[in-house]
Design brief:
Helix content: 55-70%
Shape: elongated
Structural class: mainly alpha
Radius of gyration: 25 Å
């Protein structure tokens, strides 16, 4: 018999944890890795770091992902699902512009996509991106090899502009106004970069990037020198 005033409540079995950790699987791991890459860059994505994001042991991740190389490839491929849809209308120039704009926006949102060179293996999403681009170019008379060359130029230029934009972000952050900073001091420090900080110039840079990429891509497609080696 329990003594008067004594506590009789006892835990039966293990205590229930509030906010139970998510069950590990590839999707959960890749989402955590993308979030980490967005905050700290692709170089920060390691098995140990992603495991820490998930409040898990690194060894647990290896049951779902072989190594960091595979994880990085999965992260890059999964991010491509966020790109804007581009449906063929028969007007290949308009379709190519829509496709390129979507790819640029994706790379600006995830600048680490352009880091570290090409992936060691093309995943299903990357293959789908290439096949989509090829289908949009169906009305153009260039051969398949020439179209693949044009698409390769497009991808490389998109990555290049994304890398350039990412490199300027630390400068823009340094020049951005801080709470309590006098307007005069802020404006003097910003100088010619004020438009970049406030937005319009950045949008103009994006528009310029789109124009340059399309011009270069169309230049490859319409090259007479490459036409002479057109596929049969």
């Amino acid at each position: 018999m329990a003594e008067e005033g004594a506590t009789t409540d006892r835990h039966v079995g293990p205590a229930i944890r509030i906010g139970r950790r998510a069950k590990l699987n590839r999707t959960v791991i890749v989402r955590a890795a993308i979030a980490l890459a967005d905050r700290s860059g692709l170089e920060a994505v390691t098995m140990r770091a992603v495991a820490a994001e998930l409040d898990s042991a690194a060894a647990a991740l290896y049951r779902h992902v072989r190594n960091r190389e595979e994880l990085v490839n999965l992260v890059r491929d999964s991010a491509l699902t966020e790109r804007g849809e581009a449906t063929a209308t028969g007007d290949w120039q308009t379709d190519l512009r829509t496709f390129t704009h979507g790819l640029l926006e994706l790379h600006f949102a995830h600048p680490w996509l352009a880091a570290g060179g090409l992936p060691t293996k093309l995943g299903p999403q990357a293959v789908d991106v290439v096949e989509t681009a090829m289908s949009l170019l169906t009305p153009h008379p260039a051969g398949r090899g020439q179209k693949y060359s044009a698409i390769a130029v497009l991808f490389e230029l998109v990555a290049g502009f994304a890398r350039s934009a990412a490199a300027t972000q630390p400068l823009i952050a340094d020049l951005a106004p801080r709470p309590g900073e006098p307007d005069a001091d802020r404006d003097e420090a910003a100088g010619d970069h004020s438009e970049t900080i406030n937005g319009p110039d950045f949008e103009a840079q994006r528009a310029h990037a789109l124009t340059v990429i399309l011009a270069a891509t169309c230049g490859v497609l319409d090259s007479e020198q490459l036409h002479t080696r057109r596929d049969p």
